[in-house]
Amino acid sequence: MKRILLLTVIMVAFICSGDAFAQSYRPKKKGKKILPTATFGVKAGLNVEQMRGDKAIDTNFKLGAVGGIFLSVSKKHMGGRVEALVKTVRYSTKNSSYVHIRTTSLDIPFLYEYTFFDRLKVMAGPQLTAIISAKRANGMDVKNNFKNCDFSAVLGADVDLPLRLTVGVRIIQGFVNINNTLPSSRWRNSSAQLTVGFRLVKM
């Protein structure tokens, strides 16, 4: 967790210092001002998540799905992005018998973007997660076993392809103990996502 947070800070500092250096040596051109551009699109893909904590939790990575919408606003090389993504995750306990719990959550990341070579976008920032539902395989509602919100750090990259397609990958590290049953047992999420997006509108 500390390594991911440190990597995020270093990446943002490197991007900001690099842009400041480039701006100081870039000749000023007279003409029209460059206006920000906004890109709206949809994305979907795979979510691979791991729950780490007490020994009662299966810590193997679990495969799920993720999908939603994104809005990116940028000017020259820098910009910001906000997304609304719904993801599914299946957790398992390891007590006397396995109990499988499937959760559905809403992720809202707020990301800083920096563009290289007009196609590669590197991004980092915080993410808020709200659990929508949590049910056992028999349909029993166990949402109260989880805290309603999680806070994470995100580090990732997107590549813009022809035909308005985008391929993205990111890693996410949660900081909040989402166990709402026993305060002494800590459950924290780590995940990776691989997505394909489609840029609907660019203004």
**What would you report as the Rg, rounded to the nearest angstrom?**
19 Å
What is the name of the CATH architecture? Beta Barrel
The helical percent reads 10-25%
**With helices defined by DSSP (H or I, 4 residues minimum), what is the helix count?**
1
CATH topology: Porin
Q: Main beta sheet: strand number and arrangement?
A: 8 strands, antiparallel, barrel
Identify low-pLDDT runs.
Answer: 1-28
Mean pLDDT: 84
Beta strand count: 8
Shape: elongated
Please write the CATH class name: Mainly Beta
Describe the protein in words.
Helix content is 12%, strand content 59%. It has 203 residues and is mainly β. The chain has one domain (2-24, 36-202): Porin (Beta Barrel).
Secondary structure topology:
Blueprint: H1 2-25, E1 37-52, E2 62-75, E3 78-94, E4 98-116, E5 120-136, E6 149-160, E7 165-174, E8 188-202
Antiparallel strand pairs: 1-2, 1-8, 2-3, 3-4, 4-5, 5-6, 6-7, 7-8
In a nutshell, what does this entry contain?
The protein has one helix at residues 2-25; strands spanning 37-52, 62-75, 78-94, 98-116, 120-136, 149-160, 165-174, 188-202. With 203 residues, the chain is mainly beta. Strand 6 (149-160) and strand 7 form a beta hairpin.
Observed structural traits:
mainly beta, 203 residues, single chain, 1 helix, Porin, eight-stranded antiparallel β-barrel
